Amino acid sequence: MNKDNARGNRIDPALWVKPEQFLSYLKYEKNSALHTLNACFHDLKKLVGFVNAAQLSWPVLEQQHIRQWIVSLHSQGLSGQSLQRILSHWRQFFHYLCHQLQILEINPAQGIRAPKARKKLPVVLDVDQMTALLRNPDNHEKDRKGSRHEQFLQIRDYTMLELLYSCGLRLSELVWLKISHLFEKNQQLRVLGKRQRERIVPVGKKAREAIDLWLPFRKSLAKENEPALFISVHGKRLGNRQVQNRIREYARKRGVSISLTPHMLRHSFASHLLESSGDLRAVQELLGHKDISTTQIYTHLDFQHLAAVYDKTHPRARDKKTGSDDNEGQLPKDEQIT
């Protein structure tokens, strides 16, 4: 490498591509979700920081630089999962420089692996917890005694939970639902998933009943021409953080001990459906997963459930402390050799 060209001020300024250009490409060409764009922005900000500190420019980067920077981030305490995400975004950015702008000849992040991330199984609620959480507020006198404002919040939050669990929606998918996405008498829902991939999901009976409760409240407060299915008391579309806070508060009032998130309801939907049907491909379609390997995480949860049932019920699996295996390996008395 020419040392004179290893400094950023020695490189043609036209070659210094700002990450914002790549983010625009992701947004308009690849239809990437806002959450993905935000994560990518912060990951590329780290990359730019390293490049500036080393006084380098894109065309002179090599694998050794990327490897050193990943090691540096790891030493700062970033998890393997975070490093894998960062490397993925860096690889995508360099691929863009190679193939779209043709500034680079090779991708310096290609072939570099982050430390293995410890696999975490999704947290799910069991059926009893879901039953307690989703009891219809209209069936309880104390819930009907509240003001119109309180009833609005109760019915709206209840309906959001029912749809998240009934349809296995992501948070962003719920937030961007429109009235027009409901059809066939509210029995089906059009969902826009990641990268604007569309899927049609069935709406369960309880969720349809919740929607029927919610729509009159929504109609009374929605601003003119507001298409969102779920709105705030001010008549405008709810934001992600508002939904997260409301669901956490709703669960707390229903006695759910864990800090509930929308994605836990999606996990519970998938786990319970797979446990009942065993149809992994159907669960993949309903969740909107592009790759079935993403859905296979729920088979581990299903196996955990089966293993727990086995441990509790099979006579050869019981702990000796229960007394069930005290005579393990012995013949019945009437068959023992004397």
TrEMBL record:
Molecular-function GO terms, alphabetical: DNA binding
Core-binding (CB) domain segment(s): 13-98
Record-annotated Tyr recombinase domain positions: 120-311
Location relative to the cell: Cytoplasm
Composition skew (Basic and acidic residues), residue ranges: 314-324
Disordered, as annotated region: 314-338
Chief location of this protein within or outside the cell: cytoplasm
Keywords: Cell cycle, Cell division, Chromosome partition, Cytoplasm, DNA integration, DNA recombination, DNA-binding
GO cellular component: cytoplasm
PANTHER family membership: PHAGE INTEGRASE-RELATED (PTHR30349), TYROSINE RECOMBINASE XERC (PTHR30349:SF81)
HAMAP family in the cross-refs: Recomb_XerC_XerD
Protein name: Tyrosine recombinase XerC
